[in-house]
Amino acid sequence: MAWRNCAVLLRLTGEDVLRSCVRGGSRWPHNLQQRCGFRKAARKPESKKVEEELASPHTESSEAVVPRRTSTPHWEQQTPPGSPRAFSRLLRPLVFTVGFTGCSFGSAAIWQYESLKSRVQSYFDEVRADWLEKLRPPKRGDVRKEINQWWRSLSEGQRLVTGIIAANALVFCCWRVPSLQRSMIKYFTSNPASKTLCSPMLLSAFSHFSFFHMAANMYVLWSFSTSAVSMLGREQFMAVYLSAGVVSTFVSYVCKTATGRFGPSLGASGAIMTVLAAVCTKMPEAKLAIIFLPMFTFTAGNALKAIVAMDMAGVVLGWRFFDHAAHLGGALFGVWYILFGHELIWKNREPFVKLWHNLRTRGGPGGGGDRGGSV
Known about the structure:
This protein is mostly helical. The protein contains 16 helices and 6 strands. The chain is globular, with a radius of gyration of 24 Å.
């Protein structure tokens, strides 16, 4: 079955929480610098603007752990967790979460409309392409043809997540470029204590610092992609996946602000937990197995309960190895969407689609009436 050998890495898909030590100034751990490719360098004079961006003290220890050209979060400007000002900073992320989720599902509805509208034309294009392919003499060693055959052998879900995997791989490579470190830390790690709050909520869902972290997350996403896309459709799947990345980050923001345990987080784990929870909720009796221990099987429903319980314990007990709040938020969002969200959001998209249809066909012949009727 498609479920077998998919579950061992579920508990490994946590979002890495990059911790920093606050000793007279913000600083990244030494082993993190080595993995980032940071090099020790003497302190160089910087402009006042850079000092404000880094928000670090004007004096540092003689070790010069992180060069000034690589940004570090401004921990000394964190607001006490219990103050009203700290929670008021979450208003913008909340508005961004609601707005981005609505835009995601609206765009998915338009995407589905346009796909249905062009399906007939695509069919004739494929027939013409097959006819021309037969007229052309076959070529040996045609790499392009082999790639096309491999691409067609993939399921719709696997083809869809291939783009997501490529985006994650590109961001992972950007982490290895020293000149991009400041921008990567600012925009591709989510932290409620940062000055940049909204855009990292989405971008951090495509960001991985560790190769093993990225490989584990992408393996789980690839394993569940076929079932998830078959269940939701590619348009709805993308809307759920992107919204889940933002929702899970917002839950992480709330938890960090409430507990005062600030720190940057990154990874696709929150969004992947939504996909996993949605499939397990829809098919609770499906059998899962551990990749290295295929003889041990368990139901998807039990696996989901265990994962939620572990992440809830991590939030309550303050475990900091993973961002358990983001995991829990993603899992709960997936369960909620299957039980209520699909009926509440996706099945009520018809008025919006009609509005888009009227705007789309307004300039057509005869006011677009005939064209609209066929669609």
